[in-house]
Amino acid sequence: MVKLCMRTFLFWGMALGGLFLASNLQAGGSGLNVVVVINQASSNSSELGNYYCEKRQVPPENVLRINWPGPNTMWSSNDFQTLLLNPLLAILAQRQLSNQIDCVVLSMDIPFQTLNNDVVNGTSSALFYGLKTEIGPAWGNIVNSYAYSERPFVEARPATAPGFSFLATLITSDSLAAAKKLVDQGVASDGTFPRQLVMLAKSTDPERNFRFHYFDNAIFNSRLTGHGSIVRTNMDSPYGVTNLMGFETGLAQFSIAPNAFVPGAIADSLTSFGGIIFGPNDHTRLLAFINAGASGSYGTVTEPSAVAAKFPHPLVYFYQARGFNIAEAYYQSLYEPYEGIVVAEPLASPYAKPGTGAWQGATSNAVLNGTVPLALHFSAADIERPLQKVDLFVDGKYFQTLTNLPPLPGNLIGLRLNGYQINYTVPANATIASIASDIAGLINAPAATNKTKAKAAVFGDRIELQSLSTNRPVRPGIPKLKTLNPTNGPASNLPLSISNSAGSATAATTFLRASRPMFLNSLAAGNKTFTVNGSLQVGSWLKLTVKKTSGATASVSVTNHSISANPSDLALQLVGLINSTPAFQTADGVFAEDFHAGFFGSGSFVLRAMDSGLKGVGTKVTLTGAANILLAPASQVRLDENLSDTQPRNHLYVAAGLTNLVVNISLDTTRLGEGYHDLTAVACEGTSVRTQTRVSLPVIVQNSSLNATLTPLDLASTNSVQGTYHFQVSGNASNISVIRLLTTGGEIGTVMNSPSANFTIIATDLGVGLHPFYALVETSSGERFRTPLFWTRFASAL
Length: 798
What we know:
Blueprint: E1 9-11, E2 15-16, E3 34-39, H1 43-56, E4 63-66, E5 74-76, H2 77-94, E6 103-107, E7 113-116, E8 119-122, H3 123-129, E9 167-171, H4 176-189, E10 197-202, H5 215-225, E11 229-234, E12 244-249, E13 261-269, H6 287-291, E14 296-300, H7 316-322, H8 326-332, E15 340-344, E16 356-360, E17 366-368, E18 371-379, E19 387-394, E20 397-404, E21 412-417, E22 420-425, H9 432-444, H10 446-452, E23 454-459, E24 462-467, E25 496-501, E26 510-514, E27 525-534, E28 541-547, E29 553-559, H11 567-578, E30 590-597, E31 603-612, H12 613-617, E32 620-625, E33 629-632, E34 637-638, H13 643-646, E35 649-656, E36 660-668, E37 674-685, E38 692-701, E39 708-712, E40 718-720, E41 724-731, E42 736-743, E43 746-752, E44 756-762, H14 763-766, E45 769-779, E46 784-786, E47 790-795
Parallel strand pairs: 3-4, 3-6, 5-7, 6-9, 10-11, 10-12, 12-13, 17-38, 37-46, 40-47
Antiparallel strand pairs: 1-2, 1-36, 7-8, 14-15, 16-18, 18-36, 19-20, 19-37, 21-22, 21-25, 23-24, 24-35, 26-35, 27-31, 27-33, 28-29, 28-32, 30-31, 32-34, 37-38, 39-41, 41-44, 42-43, 42-45, 45-46, 45-47
Helix pairs in contact: 1-4, 5-7, 7-8
């Protein structure tokens, strides 16, 4: 393997020594980290795969060509493993790509279902964490430990993965043009920080709308990021709604207007067969979202049962707002994805913000020989996104980590929360995740929570702070919680401040920041689920009494007059009366929703406060009824079923690195081989998001007289894909042992023991698109030469 010999130093006013830990970890944020799988039996698959490689600058060796002549619907687990999985793992090993690939893109006309011992898996999910079955003791094997982790994928691959794991997506649609549009929408979204709405829609279908219980949490977290805008609504069909950044619903059938979504949008529906993208299907397919402009969607490819964990959590929009790409956001939101597929442009990152960088010490295409001093200078996008890690790629292949700044032992973090001081010193061998866990532990210590009235939960590099206020009335012997901002209502709007310093270390490389200086009050409305069961007679009654947030009391009651009615019928009458009684329609009132007729004549409904936050939670409700009716709850309650969503909240984030990095390199060019090379340095953000900043430098290495030429004999810049073409490669040495010709997909021809070679190219084997060609020439004494790239485009019509 080619190696670099270098000495690396970082400067930010003074040199730091001994900090640069080598690592093979890679962020999953660019074409360098993607393998594109093309079905050679489909010209559409070839053209789309080539198109994606061009748009995302995927290196030519990061392409796998398979041959599947069957349908694009289902294949057996044996076909999946023999034709896709095993060749994929083989090329990663052979081409030395194993430590840089996070994403796998399946380019249309590849089956989306995989049959595994009578259990159907989604093909993308099988690449994510292996083929699954829910039979017997294997049940626990279907969960995804990466879900909700908010950690870099490479550090948190699913624990149940069988030795491999990829953020796999399909790029496909009803036509090649629509699939290309999906690519374009994803690429166009990067770094745009769109402000268009994400709509979380609660439909009228109680069998499919149950994700609405998670809406408020996702909305609250996203508000704290300050990016994007999420609203909840009651809606069945989104038809006619346009300019959306996202849409989540639960409904079997609906229509979507063309161009409903802006670039980068995520949209899906909870329904049984949304992932049956081709073939008979009476449910709305996920492709309806893709064809309307969404950059990503998800659906199940078999009957999943009514389990929310098998569908994306609304937090997918929060993860996206943090800066994670669509593939990362989707797989973090899926706890049991094995029965589904992700159709998406995986790298789309609307809320990612890369820094800037430049090579210093050499110009583009400079001729280098011997040991050459080079330098890299990177600047972070802002202080919230310091740069931690710099990797070097040579000719598109991971080569070496140049620097990886850890949190330095001795760095000091100070957190003052509601007047209570917490101090933390970074220990040896700390990581971003371990620091977040340590600080949360200090916040949750009884001595701290008694003073701060707040608790902490850890998600990767994020600490979620939640006020412990419940807005309960003062009772004798119980002190009233301190209200620091009465104009914002009764919530405890806790203040906090943070200090970061080098401490005993030589520099500060560890940082804690808060989303805002005061806790944010919730917009969620308190709610409670009520259930009516038992037996019903003529004259049986129900009564709802509400003590509203203003202190006023209102009540309604219904009486049964039918000999054939059941408790569900009486509950439905009560719901209608609640929603039509003026006393409940005021700002301090309540409304009933999500009525559900259950088994054996039971009925349930959700009562929700009109007031938001803890104020609405303070509403007191009593449901009473005739003796033969069973009620739950059976005593006075507050609307606190979703208490955690209504309590004030804040976020803390741990980061490592520096906002300015200078990396000095002594590059021994004799270890690169002669000829034309591309040096790409990738600086990764020092948070869980790991946004990449990339800078490339083409160079020519010339340490010996070895040279070679690549000559296209009958190729122009654009050529017919139906043609046959020829290259000639000539070396200037007599001891040349091998000449290799490479292009999209890797090596396509080899000639042994000859100083020159002619190669024939059948363009249909490569497909429509832009292709790079280059030759590698080796001598018997071990010298190597790499020719410059020759780019040519094969077109379907000239």
